Amino acid sequence: MDKLREAGAAVGEWVDTSLLKSPARLALGSFAIVILLFTGLLSLPIATETGERAPFIDALFTATSAVCVTGLVTVDTGLYWSGWGLGIIALGIKVGGLGIMTLASLVGLAVSRRLGLTQRLLAAGEARAAGLGDLRSLLRTVVVVSFSVEIAIALVLFPRFLTLDYGFWRSLGYSGFYGISAFNNAGFTPDPLGLIPYAGDFWMLVPIGLGVLVGALGYPVYLNLIRGWRRPRDWSLHTKLTLIMVSALTVVSAGLLAVFEWSNPDTLGDHSSAKSIGNIFFQSINQRSGGFNSFDIGKAREQTWLLEDVLMFIGGGSGSTAGGIRVTTLAVLLLAIWAEARGRRDMEAFGKRIGTEVLRGAVAITLIGLFIVIIGTTVFMAQTDIPLDQALYEVVSAYATCGLSTGITADLPPEAKGTLIAMMYLGRVGSLTIAAALALNKQRRVIRYPSERPIIG
């Protein structure tokens, strides 16, 4: 009995030191547990349209894709899963979009009206709060904005589905599903053919596209805009950089997409000018993280694939439902290049100086992401006979939790599906979270070595 008590005490001590004192590891473990929970729910016979159990790899893949708000699928979402299964997927998207730690903090706050330090650290890190004192306001913003936007999208789409003779309950379910999927940048569609049949239907594309755009900005931006929407000059540097980068990337990607696909008869070439322009802007919004597509990506040109590789890797705003390295990371890297080109010592924007520790973080996020993508693509190609362009597209889409695909996902062998599952998981929890989870301790050195500058370039 004494040995059991000692063992229990040892385990408790390990949990306290390894988990509670390392929010990153707790976040990793929590995400994994939730994915397994939804895998179990999707493995139930009631979850499929045929009433048969889904293969474990497909249930795991779908659960990971939902919780990681990605949108890649190995089976047709609208045909394979039952209404109950679609509800489980929508719930997984909602949980993944809010964030496991944020959701746990919301529940704890509702029950006890208090948040422990560990919960505050987890939620603040996941939602990118400016500080622990900002957390309560940020959590309130998370709830209000997410539910408001999802309900608004559903209300707009509901009458449209009624006009398509979907019936009341199916229209209600589909509109709610699209609202959740759009705001959380998940890219899941309950329609068997996705949004391709609605390529010229702006009643469908506009609310979904706006939902994706709003969802990709990030909760810190919402909070800042709500507090100071009348005073743009007082917006934080993060908000300004996010809005500028999102706008610039949307316009640039739309222009390049028009150049690449305007004359392609398999994508935009057979459409009217108005329809083509609408689809271009819809796709330019979804290229970075939304995952919806209004034309067949598999028939797009290779230049478009390369463009979308870059855009997916960049992703959306920090603290948002989008993935990628985030637009502010790119902004910091561009500001560093600009400062170096002009011979300036500091990175500056809007009258603010950006510290070198921010640049180190941006470089770390980018390089870790590139390393994961390169390793993932290498492994993926070794597991399949898929050429580099399609393999890279699929891996980047998974890591950036975007969900766009050239149409190869369903036919992949189990081991390749496992690689994409790992990519989605790593992409959702974040590069720096992985790095922090692997770091056993942090050392603060009192003694510093003398500096020396190596030759660069």
TrEMBL record:
UniProt protein name: Potassium transporter Trk
GO cellular component terms listed in the entry, alphabetical order: plasma membrane
Highest taxon above the source species: Bacteria
Membrane topology: Multi-pass membrane protein
Single GO term (MF): monoatomic cation transmembrane transporter activity
A Pfam entry, by short name: TrkH
Subcellular localization: Cell membrane
Keywords of this entry: Cell membrane, Ion transport, Membrane, Transmembrane, Transmembrane helix, Transport
Biological process (GO), any one: metal ion transport
Keyword Oxidoreductase appears in the UniProt entry: no
Record carries keyword Transmembrane helix: yes
Broad class of where this protein is predominantly found: membrane
Stretches that traverse the bilayer: 26-47, 59-81, 87-111, 138-162, 202-225, 237-260, 310-337, 358-382, 420-440
PANTHER family the UniProt entry points to: KTR SYSTEM POTASSIUM UPTAKE PROTEIN B, TRK SYSTEM POTASSIUM UPTAKE PROTEIN TRKG-RELATED
